[in-house]
């Protein structure tokens, strides 16, 4: 990293990720959660939802959940591009899109995958996103490379205006986002 | 809308066309029932009329009753029948720009056996749609597009759309003149600088001398004199009013949205002569299609496009406010403007126009002296192909070796290229490619375009065809390989050939080069996902190449889409010989 990028870049990177950290603090509640939900274990899930990712859309395009429900999402990337599955509000997604754009610009992400050579970066400064081995330390998000399948287990604790979305540059705009509706 | 004098609204024209279509199916093709369900029929009358732009009335040629002509909304796989009737006193034609189509249906008189539609006659176009995306249609006769003969084509894919949009608008850009195009051309032939109101003056000379040093400024002048061109000739026709969907800046065409919606905008450059820089201040655009062909989405703040090109973008306005769609021609002689708004009657600020760039000698492929162009425009001297210049004394120079070597006449002390902005003065754009994009803003570059699906033909080209874009501006002579259409040698390739087209621009103007009948794959640095284009913009002094699989037999027009350049002879015949039996 420091070998290839001038210091200026590094500064901007850090500045960029400070936002994430700040956002994390603002939303953080004990146990890694967000105001509307938290990660859970697969064994606790009462329902499995399979979502297919294509270039650049989801199937299905929307989702209905209940408050308190624990859903195991199985994310199958049938496209040729890298995709994300991220649960959040539209504002959270908008913010995350800026970060993703920066990661793409700096080569940490490529249109088709992750730059594993950059795994040696100091992830502690990155707001919890472990870009190297694709562990979703950002608990509400997972990245899925083309042809791969990943899982995310999420407890929807209380109703909110949520979307599941792919924040890879251009994908959200293209319509790779779906509404999460709550029923009682 | 610009209500045509006939009293028919655009909607009426479409209704009529629809009704005629049904009757036509039953009466004319009774034996083809199996096609009837997927056949759409239209009647397009071409007639003289008048339109009003910003409240000013002028002559126009109406196709289907309006300017622009009615938007064709089709679906991939459909069979289309169009009855085109010529109600003018002169021959006309309709060309389907960007469509993969049988030669005789392509609509270019003198090519593929197609003959212009004579006054009073009707020509029946019939073709099956083999593609999806945004295209357009226009006259291919006697500069009639300049008079309003253009309209949009929207083809829905048989599968899924590449994006999910809540609203879908066509944004047709054009340049309108009250003058008769034939008059414009004769003015240009008499004096190529006729419309160049921005000619550099003695005052400019002294300003340059102050800024860059007397010798540099003088040398620059002398070189321009040698080239017999003028450094402000960015567009050779000005005095235009720039239109969006047939509306002038004051008419303010408006598209509605609800905040939070995804809006698809299909930008089509249907102008006769204008390159536009397009932006929507406050609203980034995600480009996902170029020339009707899907590309991987790329987020930009602005893009420049040439005559004949199209870009599909998606925008997501989240706020309950209006946005201005702003398109400036590169010569900055005016602007086209429209509005995206949650409600009718809303307006956003119209941005200030950006400064007009000064062409650099680099735009002539000879950045060998004078001002330091490289640091001002980011131009790559190493790839400038100096050897391509016709008869230029500098032709043999190897720019890549020029490194930091001091160049004749260069005065680093007085150039102040970085200083222009630092001094607090307005940064002065320099060179054709300089759109005055503000720092931090992203302008679309050809290199950003990456096809959404891999190219189907991975073969290396079996031959290379060099096409030199040539001309003598002063005499308004524009041609290819030094020979005007009619005195040219057609390009011949065999069916199935894999060809590299190398465009070498030896002139000081950018040329949007259009090949009918086939897409080319632009060599923009992508490997197996080169974008497919029907128009390739070749900037001044640059070389651009594209690959092509010659899989559409015919003799296809291959020309500069600047209408007066084409009219002056910047066209040739691209012949794909059919498979021998």
From TrEMBL, chain B:
Residue segments, region Disordered: 390-461
Superkingdom of source: Bacteria
Statement: the UniProt record of this protein carries the keyword Oxidoreductase: yes
GO MF terms, alphabetically ordered: copper ion binding; oxidoreductase activity
A GO CC term attached to the entry: periplasmic space
Matches recorded under InterPro entries: Cu-oxidase-like_N (IPR011707), Cu-oxidase_2nd (IPR001117), Cu-oxidase_C (IPR011706), Cu-oxidase_fam (IPR045087), Cu-R_CopA (IPR006376), Cu_oxidase_CS (IPR033138), Cu_oxidase_Cu_BS (IPR002355), Cupredoxin (IPR008972)
UniProt key word Oxidoreductase: yes
Cited Pfam families: Cu-oxidase (PF00394), Cu-oxidase_2 (PF07731), Cu-oxidase_3 (PF07732)
Plastocyanin-like domain boundaries: 46-158, 238-339, 460-579
UniProt keywords, alphabetically: Copper, Metal-binding, Oxidoreductase
NCBIfam families according to UniProt: copper_res_A, TAT_signal_seq
Name listed for the protein in its UniProt record: Copper oxidase
Organism name: Oceanibaculum pacificum
Higher taxonomy: Bacteria, Pseudomonadati, Pseudomonadota, Alphaproteobacteria, Rhodospirillales
């Amino acid at each position: 990293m420091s070998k290839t990028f001038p210091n200026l870049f590094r500064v901007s990177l850090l500045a960029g990720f400070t936002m994430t950290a700040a956002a994390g603090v603002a939303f953080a509640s004990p146990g890694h959660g967000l105001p509307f939900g938290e990660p859970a274990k697969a064994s606790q899930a009462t329902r499995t939802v399979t979502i297919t990712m294509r270039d650049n859309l989801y199937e299905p395009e929307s989702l209905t959940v209940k408050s308190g429900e624990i859903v195991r999402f199985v994310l199958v990337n049938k496209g040729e591009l890298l995709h994300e599955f991220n649960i959040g509000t539209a504002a959270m997604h908008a913010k995350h899109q800026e970060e993703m754009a920066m990661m793409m610009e700096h080569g940490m992400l490529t249109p088709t995958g992750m730059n594993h050579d950059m795994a040696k970066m100091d992830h502690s400064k990155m707001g919890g996103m472990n870009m190297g081995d694709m562990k979703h330390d950002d608990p509400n998000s997972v990245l899925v490379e083309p042809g791969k399948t990943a899982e995310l287990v999420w407890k929807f604790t209380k109703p909110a205006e949520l979307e599941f979305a792919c924040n890879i540059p251009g994908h959200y705009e293209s319509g790779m986002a779906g509404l999460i509706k709550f029923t009682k | 809308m610009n209500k045509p004098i006939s009293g028919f609204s655009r909607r009426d024209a479409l209704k009529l066309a629809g009704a005629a279509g049904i009757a036509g199916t039953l009466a004319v093709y009774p034996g083809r029932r199996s096609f009837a369900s997927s056949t759409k029929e239209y009647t397009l009358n071409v007639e003289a009329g008048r339109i009003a732009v910003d409240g000013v009335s002028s002559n126009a040629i109406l196709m289907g009753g309006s300017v622009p002509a009615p938007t064709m909304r089709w679906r991939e796989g459909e069979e289309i029948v169009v009855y085109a009737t010529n109600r003018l006193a002169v021959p006309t034609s309709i060309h389907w720009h960007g469509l993969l189509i049988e030669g005789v249906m392509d609509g270019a008189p003198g090519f593929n056996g197609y003959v212009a539609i004579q006054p009073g006659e009707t020509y029946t176009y019939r073709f099956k749609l083999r593609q999806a995306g945004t295209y357009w249609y226009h006259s291919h006769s006697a500069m009639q597009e300049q008079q309003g003969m253009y309209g949009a084509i929207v083809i829905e894919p048989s599968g899924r759309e590449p994006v999910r949009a809540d609203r879908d608008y066509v944004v047709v850009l054009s340049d309108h003149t009250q003058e008769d195009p034939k008059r414009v051309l004769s003015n240009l032939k008499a004096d190529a600088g006729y419309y160049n109101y921005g000619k550099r003056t003695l005052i400019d000379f002294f300003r340059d001398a102050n800024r860059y040093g007397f010798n540099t400024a003088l040398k620059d002048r002398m070189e321009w004199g040698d080239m017999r061109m003028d450094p402000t000739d960015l567009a050779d026709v000005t005095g235009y009013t720039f239109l969006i969907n047939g509306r002038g800046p004051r008419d303010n065409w408006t598209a509605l949205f609800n905040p939070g919606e995804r809006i698809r905008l299909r930008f089509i450059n249907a102008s006769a002569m204008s390159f536009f820089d397009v932006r929507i201040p406050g609203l980034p655009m995600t480009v996902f299609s170029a020339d009707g062909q899907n590309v991987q989405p790329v987020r930009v703040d602005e893009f420049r496009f040439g005559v004949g090109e199209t870009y599909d973008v998606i925008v997501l306005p989240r706020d309950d406010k209006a946005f201005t769609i702003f398109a400036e021609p590169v010569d900055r002689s005016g602007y086209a403007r429209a509005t995206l708004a949650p409600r009718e009657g809303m307006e956003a600020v119209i941005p200030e126009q950006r400064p007009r760039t000064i062409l650099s000698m680099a735009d002539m492929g000879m950045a060998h002296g004078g001002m330091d162009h490289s640091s001002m425009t980011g131009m790559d001297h190493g790839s400038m192909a100096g050897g391509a210049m016709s008869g230029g004394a500098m032709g043999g120079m190897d720019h890549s070796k020029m490194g930091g070597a001091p160049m004749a006449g260069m005065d680093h002390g007085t150039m102040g290229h970085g200083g222009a902005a630092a001094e607090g003065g307005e940064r002065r754009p320099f060179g054709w490619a300089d759109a005055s994009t503000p720092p931090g803003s992203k302008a679309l570059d050809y290199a950003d375009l990456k096809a959404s699906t891999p190219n189907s033909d991975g073969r290396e080209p079996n031959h290379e065809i060099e096409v030199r874009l040539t001309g003598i501006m002063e005499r308004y002579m524009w041609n290819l390989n030094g020979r005007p259409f009619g005195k040219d040698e057609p390009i011949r390739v065999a069916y199935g050939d894999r060809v590299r087209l190398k465009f070498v621009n030896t002139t000081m103007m950018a040329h949007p080069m259009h090949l009918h009948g086939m897409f080319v794959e632009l060599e923009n640095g992508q490997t197996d996902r080169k974008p497919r284009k029907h128009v390739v913009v070749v900037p001044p002094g640059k070389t651009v190449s594209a690959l092509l699989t010659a899989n559409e037999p015919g003799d296809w027009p291959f020309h500069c889409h600047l209408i007066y350049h084409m009219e002056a002879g910047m066209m040739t015949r691209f012949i794909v010989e059919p498979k021998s039996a």
